[in-house]
Amino acid sequence: MQLRHERVELETARHRIVGTLTLAREGYRSRITDMLNATERDFVALTDVEITPLDGSGPTRTHRFASIHRAHIVYAVPLEQDAAAAEADHAARLA
């Protein structure tokens, strides 16, 4: 299966989370909504993650990986970035 990486912003009741989501390049499981509605998975896996408290109570933390329980996600949006730039950014972060 060919994959693509997409930067997304998730928000929970307490945090704003920006990270890279790995999706199928096309077809089934190629959309953020597919990942959010996948009942066989309870967690959303992100790489290159930045977690910021919504109440400003602490600094933004960075992690190479984070897993977020789907039930805690209030909203999710893709961050605007062309696919080539997203792939290059993801590869640079892993290097």
Overall structural class, as computed from helix and strand content, comes to: alpha+beta
Main sheet attributes: strand count, strand direction, barrel closure: 5 strands, antiparallel
Helix content: 10-25%
Tally of strands: 5
Count every helix, treating DSSP H or I runs of 4 or more residues as helices.
2
How much of the residues is beta strand, in percent? over 45%
Oligomer: single chain
Shape: globular
Q: Would you state the CATH class? A: Mainly Beta
Helices and strands, in order, run as EEHEEEH
Structural overview:
With 95 residues, the chain is of the alpha+beta class. It has one domain (3-82): SH3 type barrels (Roll). It has 2 helices and 5 strands; from the N terminus they run E-E-H-E-E-E-H. Strands 4-3-2-1-5 form a 5-stranded antiparallel sheet. The radius of gyration is 13 Å and the shape is globular. The model has no long low-confidence stretch (mean pLDDT 86).
Outline of the structure:
The protein is α+β, with helices and mostly antiparallel strands and 95 residues long. It contains two helices and five strands, in the order E-E-H-E-E-E-H. A five-stranded antiparallel beta sheet has the order 4-3-2-1-5.
